[in-house]
UniProtKB/TrEMBL annotation:
It comes from the Bacteria. This is Putative lipoprotein. Keywords: Lipoprotein, Signal. Residues 1-22 form the signal peptide. It comes from Vibrio diazotrophicus. The keyword Lipoprotein applies.
Length: 191
């Protein structure tokens, strides 16, 4: 029994001393409207994260060592909150049980980083799909943002964070400026 307790203690200490996984901050910035585009339009906002993996960056240092980097925040909740703020600023009311529904599907949110001692290359891609649905039909739209950045030396977590946030914010701006989506919601999300 003492050997079992000793083995468990050693395993626990080893786990505590193992290097912690890298994390970066995801801070999506909502694009806020100065004036309402609708009044008395309600919908329920639902979000799903359908990415195959939960990391937001893959760092390849070139020595057969590819390391995943995760976001400190829950990606789905961070993006849902940003979209909620955007639509709220346009005059929409988000409610729990509306027959009108807007579904956010996060299909991709990833920065791939390849670096050597002398330089780094980062490729960011974010792919979001929005489905605006009423009892009378639905509109499905995809929004993609990409970025490519190169720099000297190795990429820092701050560099990766900036690329990820820039691409996410690019997609949020595209959604905010989408008049087809706005008109569909304006016409059908009444009451």
């Amino acid at each position: 029994m003492k050997k079992l307790v000793l083995a468990a203690s050693i395993a626990l200490l080893a786990a505590c001393s193992a290097p912690q996984q890298q994390q970066i901050s995801l801070n999506p910035t909502a694009v806020l409207s100065n004036s309402d585009i609708v009044t008395n339009s309600k919908f329920t906002l639902v979000s799903k994260d359908v990415r195959s993996a939960q990391y937001v960056a893959l760092v390849d240092s070139g020595r057969n060592n590819i390391e995943p980097v995760h976001a400190r925040q829950n990606v789905r909740i961070a993006l849902e909150n940003a979209l909620s703020s955007q639509f709220d600023s346009q005059g929409f009311t988000i409610t729990v049980n509306s027959e009108n529904m807007l579904t956010l599907e996060i299909q991709e949110a990833l920065v791939t980083v390849t670096h050597t001692i002398m330089e780094n290359e980062m490729n960011g891609k974010v792919l979001l799909q929005l489905t605006a649905e009423t009892p009378k039909g639905k509109l499905v739209k995809s929004y993609t943002g990409t970025a490519k950045r190169t720099g000297a030396l190795s990429a820092s977590n701050e560099d990766i964070e900036q690329v990820l946030n820039d691409v996410v914010n690019l997609v949020l701006k595209e959604i905010a400026a989408d008049t087809e989506l706005q008109n569909y919601m304006k016409e059908r999300f009444n009451g």
